[in-house]
């Protein structure tokens, strides 16, 4: 064991009382044992001398290799430190330049979009002059969406206001074009108007406005027709402004010889309006709003509203 004491072990084996001869005898025995062990150890050392020498040489070789490896590691670490510094600096520079490039490209794209938005009004007027109302409204709505996306630019705030004014002007032109349907119904023209109002989400407003236009068309057509014949009946020196007279009073100005031609022209003019309304109803029957999977109830409600309004308008117009 680790706590073994050989000297104490031998002393504990001595008898009591101890004689000189016993001590001498044990001393001789132990010396013989020591001699035998020493010879055996020396013999083993001699046997392993060549291996020992080889191991010593191998250890020295390993020491030399370790010194060379240590030198290489030291040099490599120095080179890595230099490379790390240079690589990091250049990499950060490359990343910074790349980021600047990306920001510049994003800014360039934004500027191009803003430039396009600035030129939108010219294109809008071209589309409206070509009676491409859906294209004009679609372009306006897209521009407004783009203006919302780029609202962080100061120049866009004024542009957004301008786009809103342009949209209002476009709606006024739509309304004027809608009023022309009352006296001359053109299917292609009316389909474009309907599509434009759909994009605006004002399908119901469209039919309401249209019925008002029909009422105004009837009134204006009747008044202008009778007014033209009343002007023929007026005496040259009569200082009456017929334009300010009521319709009933204007009719009373007609003479007997003018009455029949005036009535014929009036019936023809009103017949054109009735024919236009008939074509309008027929168009809506043939072009019902398609059902939508997302909002079927909304589409059905709008269709029912339009049909009901047009049906009720028949009696009123007649």
From TrEMBL:
This is Vacuolar protein sorting-associated protein 54 N-terminal domain-containing protein. It comes from the Eukaryota. Keywords: Coiled coil, Protein transport, Transport. GO terms for cellular component: cytosol; EARP complex. Residues 2-283 form the Vacuolar protein sorting-associated protein 54 N-terminal domain. One of its GO terms (molecular function) is SNARE binding. Residues 153-180 form a coiled coil. PANTHER family: SYNDETIN. One of its GO terms (biological process) is retrograde transport, endosome to Golgi.
